Every structure is written in C-alpha cells, then in structure tokens.
Amino acid sequence: MGAIWCAVGTSTTAPAYTDTQLGAEYARATMTTNSRTGNVVTLNFLFTSAQAHTQLNECGVFLNATSAVNSGTLINHAVINELKSSTVTMLVAVQLTLT
Questions:
Q1: Which of 19, 44, 53, 77 could serve as a FRET partner for 63 with CA atoms 20 to 30 Å apart?
Q2: What was the pLDDT predicted at 2?
Q3: Is 0.90 topped by the overall pTM?
Q4: CA 37 to chain centre
Q5: Nearest to residue 97, comparing CAs of 72, 75, 80?
Q6: What confidence tier does 1 reach under pLDDT thresholds 50, 70, 90?
Q7: In Å, how far are 30, 38, 75, 87, 99 from 5, measured between CA atoms?
Q8: Nearest CA to 24 among 48, 51, 55?
Q9: Which of helix, strand or coil describes residue 27?
C-alpha cells in the first residue's frame, strides 16, 4: 500500500468528493500508529510542536505518498478548526469504516 501520510492545510473551501488534493496544503505527518476493531480502522498522525504553526482548516489522508506536497492518493478530506502554535503537539486520529 505504500506510505500513509496526513496533510493539514489552510483552505476554507468545503471539501468535495472529487478532490484529489487539499485546497492549500501546509504540512504533513506520517502515520504513527494504527488499529482495527471489526470493520473500523483508526489511523493516528502526530504533528510535533515544530510543525504547522498557523490556523488549520482542512486535513486529509494520502496513500502511497511521500513528504512532498500533494503527493499520493487522497482518500479523505475533512474540515477542521485548529489554531496550532509552537507550544502544541497535535494528534490527528482518522477513523475509516470499511464496508
């Protein structure tokens, strides 16, 4: 499946089903842990205090990705509202239900 990354961005445009990238990608983090309970998979991504110091409005998970902006295949795109500063470590937990 390749590397799984979470990206956060600053765009306030609503996500659309047809999106292939974030509106304004700002930073990325690799998956730190994952788990599965039944048909629910949880993916965890840790943004350290050194990353993404700004108002964050969107996030998405990319498969077969690298640290390069807009790399990989976007599998979800969500609205968030997080003012991230250098004193904050941010954990993004994404739950996917497999049917």
A1: 53
A2: 72
A3: yes
A4: 21
A5: 75
A6: low
A7: 4, 23, 11, 22, 22
A8: 55
A9: strand
In this structure, what DSSP letter does residue 41 have?
E
d(CA 7, CA 56): 10
Tokens of 73: 């295949």
Burial class (CB in 10 A: 0-12, 13-18, 19+), 56: buried
Q: Give me 34's structure tokens.
A: 């994952």
Where does residue 83 rank: exposed (0-12), middle (13-18), buried (19+ CB within 10 A)?
A: exposed
- Structure confidence at residue 17 as a pLDDT band (50, 70, 90): very high
Distance (Å, whole) CA 43 – CA 5: 10
Q: Which residues pair with 29 in a beta bridge?
A: 6
Nearest C-alpha neighbor of 8 from the set 69, 66, 63? 69
- By residue count, the chain amounts to 99
**Strand-pair partners of 46:** 91
